Structure formats: C-alpha cells, structure tokens
C-alpha cells in the first residue's frame, strides 16, 4: 500500500494570492471607513465629570450672554441701527459656531471613546470653520460702519441705509459659508487611509491629512481661504489705524472711537490670536507637544470669544448697557 504525498501549492502562487487578498482588504478598509475617532481626554478619565460640569457651565454661560444680547437688541427699537445689528449678528454667529462643538463634546465626555461618523465630521467642520469666517466678515462690516460714522458722518445715512445693511449682512453670512462648503465638498470625496482626528473636534485639514491621496486641490482651497481672511484682517486693522489718525484731531471723535471702536479692536485681536494658534498648530504643530496644551490651543477660540465678545459690548456700549440695566432693575435709565 503506497502512501500519496500531500500536494503543496506553489509558493509563488500562494504569494501572489496572498498579495491580491491583502490588496483587496486594504482597498475595502480604506473605502469603508465611516467612523472616525477624535482626540479626547483619555488622560483625564478620573476628572471626567468635573470637566463635563465645567464645560456645561461654560456652554450655558455662552448661551445666556449671547441670547440676552440678541434679545436686547431685537426687542429695543432704539437699537435697530447698523452698529447694533452687526453686534446682534456677531452674537448669533457665536451661537451657531458653538452649537457645532459643545453638544457633541459634552456627549463625548460621558463616554470613554470619542467617535464621530465621517459625514458628521464634515458637517461639524463646516459649522465651526464657517462660523470663524463669518465672524471676520462681520468684523469687517463693523469696521466699515465705524469708518463711515466717524470719517464720513454727512454720508453715513446714505451709505448705511436699511437696504445696504441687509444686503451686507446677508453677504457676510452667505459668502463665507459657501467658501467653506466648497472646500468641504471636495474633502468629503476623499478616500480615507486613517481614522483618527488629532483634535477634540473635526477640521477639514485634519481630514485631508488622513486621506490616502490628499491631492493639491484641497491644499490650494485651504490656503486661498486663509489668504482671503488674512486680507480681511489687514483691511480691518488698516481701517482702525486710519480711524485713530482721524480721531486724534478732535475730542468728540476720540470719545466716539473709545466707546464704539475700541471694543471691535479688542475682539478682532482676541479672535485673530485664537484662530492663528489653531491654524498654525494644526498645520505645523509638533507631535511632542502635550495633549493638554494641544487641546487648550484648539479650544481657545471656541471658549474665549463667545463669552468675552457679548460681555465687552454689554459693558462698553452705553445704549446696550442702559437697556440691560432697565431690564434687570425694572426702571428707566437715562443715557
């Protein structure tokens, strides 16, 4: 009785088969990535409820101060002037932008894993970064409004009539939103080779970084957007520089500048420093930086400006301050 030797497949054939299977599996993995993980607070699990409580308190404070200012301006017809309409839109934009971050972040703090769908990641990035661009557009309108009020007072009412204000306000929302939307539509078509976003929330540039082939288009669109809003900053800064030169000539103009322009300038610098940290760190940041510092830098523009901006306007702008006093103490305060 003869024993038949077991047949062994050709090593070369097995190697080719395994390579083909591995290639198919890689393609399936990259094309089927639908869930992404966010850089959470993995090192802070023992203090998770403390962080949750502080974050919730911060978000409630943002809602309270911004909604209060919006309602104050809407309900008082004396505040239906261009400057206050722009302030109202600034607060509405703060509510819009923070709504893209805080509810999801608060939910993540209740769980150990911080995950988000790819579609949800794109939407979150759209909301947060369109809000940043809208804020710069509104600040540019406010700079133009102050320039017209102080440097061209005789032409102010013709330049800032109701139709013009409505049109400019619509443009300040629609154009930035469309710019960010176009960039993210392109980003949403990318195939992903990774699933980790090194941030507590989504950003289009970080989605591009985990794509299999990011391509040149996404980088070009991103840098064009940065350049456009850098020129917004330059325009606003130059407007205030010109206003300072004009206001030095008269005490009345100087007083008007201190009351209405100084808050805008403080807010501009506040937002710019926060966004600059975020953008520069996202593109050129070192991997050796502590996660706590990384998270703090990335969250600064979602915490400080939405709280500080309405407080600045509520304290410094006389008409708004007097109206808030009247509401709180139920008595009329003369301006």
UniProtKB/TrEMBL annotation:
Pfam families: 7tm_4. Keywords: Cell membrane, Disulfide bond, G-protein coupled receptor, Glycoprotein, Membrane, Olfaction, Receptor, Sensory transduction, Transducer, Transmembrane, Transmembrane helix. SUPFAM superfamilies: Family A G protein-coupled receptor-like. GO terms for molecular function: G protein-coupled receptor activity; odorant binding; olfactory receptor activity. It is a multi-pass membrane protein. Residues 65-313 form the G-protein coupled receptors family 1 profile domain. The chain crosses the membrane at residues 49-71, 83-102, 122-144, 165-185, 220-244, 265-284, 296-316. It is found in: Cell membrane. It comes from the Eukaryota. The keyword Cell inner membrane does not apply. GO terms for cellular component: plasma membrane. This is Olfactory receptor 4M1-like. The gene is LOC115533672.
């Amino acid at each position: 009785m003869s024993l038949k030797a077991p047949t062994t497949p050709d090593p070369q054939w097995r190697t080719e088969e395994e390579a083909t299977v591995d290639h198919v599996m890689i393609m399936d993995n990259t094309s089927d990535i639908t869930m992404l993980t966010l850089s959470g607070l993995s090192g802070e699990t023992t203090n998770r409820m403390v962080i949750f409580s502080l974050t919730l308190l911060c978000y409630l404070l943002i809602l309270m101060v911004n909604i209060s200012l919006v309602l104050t301006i809407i309900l008082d017809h004396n505040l239906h002037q261009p400057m206050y309409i722009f302030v109202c839109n600034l607060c509405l934009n703060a509510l819009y932008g923070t709504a893209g971050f805080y509810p999801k972040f608060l939910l993540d703090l209740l769980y150990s894993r911080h995950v988000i769908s790819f579609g949800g990641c794109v939407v979150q990035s759209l909301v947060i970064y369109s809000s940043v661009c809208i804020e710069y557009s509104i600040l540019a309108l406010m700079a133009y409004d102050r320039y017209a009020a102080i440097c061209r007072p005789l032409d102010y009412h013709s330049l800032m009539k109701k139709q013009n204000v409505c049109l400019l306000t619509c443009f300040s929302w629609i154009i930035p939103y469309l710019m960010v939307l176009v960039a993210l539509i392109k980003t949403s078509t990318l195939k992903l080779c990774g699933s980790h976003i090194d941030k507590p929330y989504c950003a289009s540039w970080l989605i591009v970084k985990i794509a299999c082939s990011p391509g040149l288009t996404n980088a070009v669109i991103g840098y064009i957007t940065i350049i456009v809003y850098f020129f917004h900053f330059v325009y606003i800064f130059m407007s205030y520089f010109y206003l300072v030169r004009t206001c030095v000539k008269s005490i009345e103009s100087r007083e008007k500048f201190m009351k209405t322009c100084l808050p805008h300038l403080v807010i501009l610098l506040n937002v710019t420093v926060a966004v600059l940290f975020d953008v520069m760190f996202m593109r050129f940041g070192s991997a050796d930086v502590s996660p706590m510092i990384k998270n703090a830098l990335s969250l600064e523009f979602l915490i400080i400006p939405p709280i500080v901006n309405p407080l600045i306007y509520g304290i410094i702008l006389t008409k708004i301050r007097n109206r808030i006093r009247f509401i709180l103490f139920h008595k009329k305060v003369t301006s």
